[in-house]
Description:
A hairpin with a 2-residue loop joins strand 22 (236-248) and strand 23 (251-269). This protein has 403 residues and is mostly beta strands. The chain has 3 domains: 2-167, Cathepsin D, subunit A, domain 1; 171-319, Beta Barrel (Cathepsin D, subunit A, domain 1); 328-402, Pdz3 Domain (Roll). Helix 5 (215-224) packs across helix 6. It is globular and about 60 Å long. The protein has 8 helices and 34 strands.
Amino acid sequence: MKKHILYALLLVFVTSFSATAQKNRINGIKFSRHHFVDTVKIKIWDGAVIIPVEINGQTRHLMFDTGAEFGFWIGDEEGWMKASGDTISVTDSQNSRLKKAFLTFPPIKVGDVVIENYPMVVDKGMSDYVCDRIDGAFGYDLVARGLSFKFDTKDSVMIVTDRKNYFSKEEKGQPTLKYLRCHKTRPMVWVRFPFGLFKLVFDSGAIGGEIDLSEDFVSRIAHADPEIRQKLDAITVRKDTTVITEAGLFGNSQDSVSYRTLHCPEVGLDNLILKDVWISTDKRLSKIGSTILEHNSLIVNGNKMHLVLLPHDGKMVQHVGNENKKGLKLLLADKNDTLGVLKAVVRKDGEAYRNGLRSGDYLESINGVLITDYCTYLDLMTEAMEQHCVFRTPEGTRKEVEW
């Protein structure tokens, strides 16, 4: 079952405020050292980078999220956080919009470097989905402030520096994704598809995501150019309607959407070629997700305004082969649903359908462990290799499936 019925964590902000306010807020951040290079041991969660830090005398874990313009904290506001006086209108990944206050955090120690006056938005909307794996995230504002990072996702090490050319030797000849900062200051990079060259958000906070295209985006470009429409139709293997669920900072949503499945013989990221890529257009945002970092380390160079991928095996051609042949996704049930925690969405051409599963069936247990909450499921999906799953229909019929 593993990643093919993966939870969809979209830790993404889309924000709107004046450039002057953004500049003043970034310039208020201070670092305890200058002209430094520091190495920090990190954790990798499904391609996402998790950084241990010390805040208020405790070890916390912050994800590095290139898809977020600024930092955010998942949980309740606590006494050691201080109001900064600045507010912002924030729209999260599922289009929920709220006006939030920036809170200034006490000094944050990352390795031997202390970050002072770092502001974050605080909300507990994601608490049910991260299951204590992370406490929050650093946003892309640290790069805008002049820091560069190397995330060695093979050996789980991060190098952070304020030296402008520190990574120059490592970057030579490697896949380089140059970007322009839009007004949201998130990295937008060029990606080559069989139907053209398009710019996507590089979002390291989209946990478990490879390459996502929204149906709105695909339909728009197909409508505008008959040649692109013809190329898209040539690689479209399925059109259907499905249920999607997305978790944002301010809650979660479910919706039925039209989508298509694209089978791309190859996708290009500069001179890195991804072969046999399957893309579903049932997401709201078009982006590259964290799964790219399961096979490639990453240099984030804010001074040169580019991202550099470092393939773990040194090869510039990588086989992805991410087709979901099982045709099964699991979505969180409503909190007041007394029949179960996770419900199946089953596609008719997949293995799950042939094994008797149907949309609306509830996942009861995995390897004999009852699924009573989302975090239990998440732990089992992380640990288990072969799984014996028991589902039940809303009427109570029991179904057993081996994955």
